[in-house]
Amino acid sequence: MSVEALQKPAAPAERVFFRPAGVSYVQFLAHAAQVVGASRYLEIGTNTGRSLAAIKCSSVAIDPDFQLKFPVAAGKDLCLLHQMTSDAYFRRFDPKAALDGPVDLAFLDGMHRFEFLLRDFMNVEKHMRRSSVVFMHDCLPPTLDMTGRKFIGSTHPDFRGYWTGDVWKVVPILRRLRPDLSITLLDCPPTGLVMITDLDPSSTVIEEAYSSVVAEFAKLPDEEAALADYFDRETVTASFPLMQPEELQLLIRP
Fold this sequence. Notes:
Blueprint: H1 3-7, H2 25-36, E1 40-44, H3 50-54, E2 58-62, E3 79-82, H4 86-92, H5 95-99, E4 103-108, H6 114-125, E5 128-137, H7 170-177, E6 182-186, E7 193-197, H8 205-218, H9 223-233, E8 236-237, H10 245-252
Parallel strand pairs: 1-2, 1-4, 2-3, 4-5, 6-8
Antiparallel strand pairs: 5-7, 6-7
Helix pairs in contact: 2-10, 6-8
């Protein structure tokens, strides 16, 4: 090794914006389903089926390429698997008809690009009730390098391989467009959960603003500065205390 190489300063460590320290997201989802008494569940982005298997009520799951490794139908009266994109699903099907009523709980973990997640929220909210609950995954990325729009995982030693894409942008978009929503960021490993309540199935605000807001957030001049500002503005709520059913119930329906 040359003297120049020995003297070369080490590359700066990737900035860590968030360190998950709470209840695992699957455990929290299952807990929330019990607390709200969910009887109708919808999931986008099922992959191996770990989260779907944890929910024991009638379910609709949407994924273009299922890789099931868990008993997703166990304990359920109904479990419908739609191997297609979420856009294709909502063009062709009505989950209210499939589940015999509005969706009580939804988990959105599909394509890791913000415009897809924003569309998924917009589409699923139409099939829910005001008192229903939506959870969004991967919106608290610990590092910037996992937020790229291509499937390239983080190189940080603590988060190696994590990929969230830029879905974190959906939170500031919803804050701006839908101040009527109640949005709670939870510290659930590995990349956070966002819980959304006080829904409005009749709202058309996102649909009307969709093209302009997607164009704006796709061209942020400094992604790192924007992500830092996001974490500065947001409060991350500890999930462990919410494992007490009465605490979560108060947060969902104060």
